[in-house]
Design goal:
heterodimer, A: mainly alpha, 81% helix, B: alpha+beta, eight-stranded mixed β-sheet, 27% helix
């Protein structure tokens, strides 16, 4: 494992242990609902389902179609805020 | 996408599968406690004999690629990189669980399967974790039960609520000076929580006779939301009121406020059949802990603090209330005037331009410390003797719907008259200054507003106003009710007309109904 992914894993472990990961998830969830991202994605999902047909569509189909769109449509402000939170957390627990 | 699982999922459901599944949810998906979170990171035991590793892919060590856990053994693998797929093929372990969302994937059917029993377990574990994390209940969308689906199929008529619809608006025929009743009915049928309770059929009647007022209320809501535009004739309601509140019987004009209290009381008594049962299945018969819909919506707690002037010991009692009756300037009881332009009024944005009394003024007077005087000494528990004291009323617990009663009708020994002083009231009201918890923030009776404007718990919105025109001897009640935000209607018995916000706020005001803006799950 590269040093980078080692660091990532260590940070992730710390986030989980301190319960911060769950809190960040909640924050992200709230922000994505607030800015309308969730509704946008819901709309896209419906489009994909309509295209492929309800009986034939699989979660993988949806994932393949939605993921790139979803990633691209997250507002920068939300990314910034999450990043700030993580930075603050790391600063607090600087034993890492 | 099969809604009922698959044969491979069914094959899994043998022996102790429920417990095993729960453990997986608790440890790896919805880790609620610090302990399980540590386990998630380090190792787990819980019946697994194989050596467990931390929650990372056993093939590549990553954790960001939609990690799944095998349901048959201790193996974590990336989904995106197909590591879990390889494991499934090699070991013939058909099922895996998505550690992010808890979905169950079947490698044979090549899709996520939704099994009712597993979904049930997943939901329960998620709720438990939320509780442990201190998140409490969260909103989840409505999933109709089989019975509900049947009901929906057998009753295909639907009504669409748009922002402009007038469903819920209906006139009421005056049956002979019954405008006092009509106004209260309009206010109650437009109380959102009450409407939701009755329209979702939550009243299960346990009364033997058919004189249950709650049932009649339920009927009333059906009539109001039926879409009929002709006025409704509430003769059954009137008859029931006469039966259960004898003092209101007869064709004379009655007091709308008295009717409100009597109606709430009868509804509360008839709701006893709905009181929740405690864990032992016993009915909670304690009158102080009634959990009927009336109490849930209308009951608040009024704190009364009596302070001994000698030893400064405070004796506190909390009494339930359904409404707040406010004295007005111009009555025979002295009103403590607060100078016009005083900064207290700006808490609720009321205008002091004309020097008019505001609702906030009345509330401040209501919650001010009052010297009880030497003729009303209280037995002090600290001093063990009768001492002079001050008494102060504040709100301990705010109801979801706050009803303010402006005491316009004076019935003292000397005179009977109506006080027509104009009292201005706001569309939005912040009750924070009048809370028991805000007592310390009040210096010389003026509330020092802290920066805690972020606290939304005490914010209220006006949704109904009952007005009285005329004199004590002959008068008429009308009401304004809010149909949608900023959309008001005037209800004058059978006649419903559109009203402007100005009309509402300029009216005299007798009963003011406010609804909490933000509701929390308990």
């Amino acid at each position: 494992m590269s040093k980078d992914s080692q660091m990532r894993a260590a940070i992730n472990q710390k986030l989980i242990e301190m319960g911060e990961r769950e809190r960040l998830k909640e924050l992200l969830r709230a922000k994505l609902v607030e800015c309308g991202w969730k509704d946008q994605m819901k709309g896209h999902c419906k489009d994909v389902i309509r295209e492929k047909g309800l009986e034939h569509v699989t979660v993988e189909d949806l994932e393949a179609e939605i993921t790139p769109k979803g990633r691209a449509l997250v507002p920068d402000s939300v990314k910034k805020e999450l990043l700030q939170r993580i930075r603050a957390f790391l600063a607090q627990h600087s034993t890492l | 996408m099969s809604p009922a699982g698959c044969s491979h999922v069914n094959a899994y459901k043998v022996d102790n599968w429920r417990q095993n599944l729960r453990v997986i949810y608790q440890c790896f998906v919805w880790s609620g406690s610090a302990e399980t979170r540590r386990r998630k990171v380090l190792q787990n035991d819980a019946g697994w004999t194989a050596l467990a590793k931390s929650c990372i892919c056993h093939m590549c060590g990553g954790h960001l690629n939609r990690l799944h856990s095998c349901l048959y053994c201790v193996f974590f693998g990336c989904f995106t990189k197909k590591h879990i797929h390889e494991h499934a093929k090699n070991k013939r372990h058909n099922l895996a669980i998505d550690l992010l969302y808890g979905g169950i994937y079947c490698f044979v059917c090549q899709d996520y399967m939704y099994d009712k029993d597993m979904e049930q377990i997943a939901k329960e574990e998620q709720r438990k974790a939320w509780k442990l994390q201190g998140v409490g209940e969260k909103f989840s969308t409505w999933e109709p039960t089989k019975r509900e689906l049947d009901l929906l199929r057998h009753n295909p008529k639907r009504r669409k609520m748009t922002t402009n619809c007038t469903i819920g608006l209906r006139g009421l025929i005056n049956l002979g000076n019954t405008c006092f009743m009509n106004c209260i009915v309009q206010a109650l049928t437009h109380t959102p929580l009450l409407r939701d309770f009755f329209l979702s059929d939550r009243h299960k009647c346990e009364m033997q006779s058919n004189s249950c007022l709650v049932c009649e209320m339920s009927q009333l809501f059906q009539e109001f939301y039926s879409g009929h535009r002709s006025p409704h004739i509430p003769f059954r309601l009137l008859h029931l009121v006469w039966t259960h509140a004898r003092h209101l019987a007869g064709y004379e004009q009655q007091d709308a406020h008295e009717f409100l209290i009597a109606a709430l009381d009868v509804l509360h008594r008839h709701c006893k059949g709905d009181t929740t049962r405690d864990d032992n299945g016993k009915k909670a018969n304690n009158p102080n802990h009634c959990n009927c819909i009336i109490d849930q919506i209308f009951t608040g707690g009024l704190q009364s603090d009596v302070t001994c002037q000698v030893c400064h010991g405070v004796s506190t009692t909390i009494d339930p209330f359904w409404d707040i009756s406010l004295d007005l300037p111009g009555s025979s009881t002295p009103f403590w005037p607060l100078s016009p332009g005083g900064d207290g009024g700006t808490v609720n944005g009321e205008s002091h331009l004309s020097g008019a009394t505001t609702l906030t003024d009345c509330l401040r007077r209501f919650t001010r410390p009052e010297h009880l005087g030497s003729s009303a000494k209280i037995k002090c528990g600290g001093c063990h003797s009768y001492q002079e004291s001050t008494k102060q009323l504040t709100m301990k617990k705010l109801p979801i719907v706050a009803c303010f009663h402006l005491k316009r009708f004076e019935h003292s020994a000397k005179l009977r008259r109506k006080i027509t002083t104009y009292v201005s009231f706001p569309l939005e009201l912040d009750m924070t200054p009048f809370m028991a918890s805000s007592k310390e923030s009040r210096v010389n009776g003026q509330y020092q507003q802290t920066v805690d404007g972020l606290n939304n718990d005490n914010k209220y919105s006006l949704f109904a106003v009952v007005n009285h025109q005329g004199t004590l001897e002959s008068g008429h009640y009308t009401s304004f009710i809010r149909q949608h935000k900023d959309q008001w209607f005037k209800c004058d018995d059978a006649i419903i007309t559109k009203a402007s916000i100005k009309d509402v706020l300029d009216s005299e005001g007798y009963l003011l109904f406010y609804h909490k803006q933000f509701l929390e799950y308990e």
